[in-house]
Amino acid sequence: METVTITLDGREVSGYPGMTILDLARESGVEIPTLCHDPCLPPAGACRVCLVEDERTGALLASCVAPIAPGMIINTRSDRVIESRKTIVKLMLASHPDSCLVCDKGNRCQLRQVASDMGIGLLGLQRLPQTATIDEVNPFLERDLSKCILCAKCIRACQDLVVQGAIDYFQRGFATRPATLSDLPLEDSECTFCGTCVALCPTGALTEKDKSYRGTSATVVSTTCPFCGCGCGLRLEVKDNSIVRVTPDRESTINNAALCVKGSYGCDFVHSTDRLTTPLVRRNHALEPTSWDEALELVATRFREIRDAYGSSTLAVLGSSKCTNEENYLLQRFARTALGTNNIDNGSRLYSSAARVGLGSTVGSYGSTTHLSDLERSQVIMVFGADPSSSAPIVEYAVKRAVKKGSARLILVDPRRTSLAPFAHIWLRPRPGTDVALITGLAKVIADEGLLDEEFVARRTDNFEAFVHNLQAHPLELVEEVAGVPLPDVCTVARLYATADRTAIVCGTGITQHPNATDTVKALANLALLTGNAARAGGGILVLQQDNNGQGACDMGALPDFFPGYQSVTDARARERFQELWGVELPANPGLSALEIVDNAHQGSTRGIYVVGENPVLSFPQSQSVANAMASLDFLVVQDIFLTETARLANVVLPAASFAEKEGTFTNFEGRLHAVQPAIGPVGESLPDSDILLRLSRKMDAPMPYSSIQQVMNEIADISGLPAYSSYQGPDYSRAGPTSPSWPGSNDSPWDTALRHGGQFLKGFARFCAVEWTSRRKADSDYPLTLLTGATLCHHGTGTRSSRAPRLSRFHPHALLELGASDATGLGIGHGDRVRVVSPVGQVTATVRITDALSQGACFLPTSFPDTPVNQLFASTLDPEAKAPSLKACSVRIERTAGDE
Ligand code: SF4
After folding, report:
1. Would the pTM count as exceeding 0.90?
2. Helix axes 110-117, 79-94, angle to 10 degrees
3. Which of 73, 233, 411, 697 has its CA 20 to 30 A from that of 859?
4. How far is the CA of 192 from the centre of ligand 1 (A)?
5. Tens digits of per-residue pLDDT, 637-677?
């Protein structure tokens, strides 16, 4: 590689063309102060504190933007350089308020640090009066622009890192400041309050609002975000056993300096006064506090009695896509050994099991086939049935960066306009539930026009003939008729997808929560196989996971049909391995999936359920019916951090510790293993789920022999026999950081591991699966509108945690029903009206928000508001293979409410 050699402080050093003087200096161990520079932002040369001198020309150069050139003689420490830097910093201080003692930035202020390092004391300059007002209407951040040094870090973070573009320079000269378009308040702008600007601001110009502590925190702990499946690295700043601030973990390759509003401000739930602090048992129809010993004794006794009287198959466990890998491993072992049942499932059944089943039967992996970092190298990105802006903001940032840099073209497939629509080169709006027809149409165009990768198909796949045969029976006209997408658009997208070298697909619950979800995932996998993208770096399929550990819970075997590592419970050799390891006879038949468990409870054949970290009364379809089933059980145990709607029905409630109070790992949507570390002690008498499980197993006379979480991980690694499980090998906790290798990869870099299917698919050949479009929804004139559901940026899941994060719930307190203007007019409904949304099986109330994001005949409700339990509107219709409920679209009517409903 070509190199450029310069003289730096009298020493010859070499870099590569395009490198800046600052980059090369830092690489060579030479410190140059900066205020506006950050490696994750494009350099701006705004503060000039990094001045250096080129001795050949005598020029003072801002080293962060000056590229190295052959023969340069750079001095970073000359008297002239030092004096110039000091003058610049003094000028900044002269227009800075004297508020250091009360400024929240405190010892973290970089301006103060740089001034102190330069030995700047009295300024000797006339001070400029500061008249800026403090902007603090929103619940998240405070803007005191009198402290702004115009470094533009906030502007670049907003425009180049999260690509939101909410702020820019406003006005000129002394009046210049960062501001929103037309200087609107932040809450009326495009700002999503992701907190990235606050994390990067070098002074006290941008600080967190509602801080529980002003000053320097005592300890800082790196851990992993407990909300969505991105797995962002967080730094929890702790003082007096309280989390006082959350900032991005700059070591994380997932998020670096960025977070979303939930990561930055949502962890407040940890200190909610609603936290369960003691075990509760039901006495005389009321839940009363009790001791751990009494609670666990009662649980063990009742589970034993039910098992012995009615058989193990009458017991079931609902595990959690929010708990750690180690906890899920212990939980499935507890279910299989202490209770003797394979009736165990986890929350990801509701949102991603179709992807697991669909990808398992095509490309042979049980999750995403590529990495987030590859996305920015894709030439085309197809976001299909996913709204990462709300459900996985870090993915949204990556997609927007790829488009903004000009390296990628975006195909958006979504019936509702999302925040990605302005970035899309083409936006298809298929009718809800018709995706298989659309995707099959895309495949047909690719095959008919010879745009497929024949060599790849011949060498790496099987069942191609059956797939093509099915395509031939699929007239293209059907696509337009069924999906409502114009044929020319289908052809354009097919050609765009197939002719790019690297095309990635990002899919989410818009795919996986429909009644034919598994077929849709198979159809997407067929596309990736047809074009060879399935095995290309920058190609492949990314499946978004709703919860922080949906992938890990499944990898750990919190499933009715698989032991850890996707080893089938019906495979005698696998069963023998686990029997030998755990020393007990294991059930040989697959157990019940989550909704089957509830269904069996209705029928009386499930008598006892242990719910850990899930809230089925709100998250499952037909909430009232689920509540009835839970209430009818002989015995219900709920282990959670809050008294959820499900916990209120329990016989025993066990208080669990939150993510901030325990140790372990989460596996993100790409399959990366991320560390979870305790920052504070458990609240009240709560205990980590792992401790509870170990104590309970002893009470059940089925003790599990672990004295540390590391020992659990060691066993997880030991029993893994499949390549798909390889990321759990090498059980050293020091590896479980944000940059750890990905499943099903190796120790290679993400770019290399994206090629992990390059040699061989996990099951040898990838398999085409012919799929047929069938409609499950029938038109019903009593329910003329189509309700779409989805995530919302400020809240998560059923809202159990996010609704208890005061700043999130203050900003977004209630569910809003989005409705198009023409539908609203036809119904005589206006913006802000309260309405009742009625489906054939249930009803909820919500406030109307008129929007132009929806086609006529469609409306939208977010899922995360306990007082608007949207899932109540859905019948229990399951995808036949994934056994996942349909929770994405249903037919409804809208009625005005009478009064205060
Ligand atoms: Fe947490 Fe997801 Fe937001 Fe990252 S994108 S901060 S993981 S909620």
Report:
1. yes
2. 140
3. 411
4. 13
5. 999 999 999 999 999 999 999 999 999 999 999 888 889 99
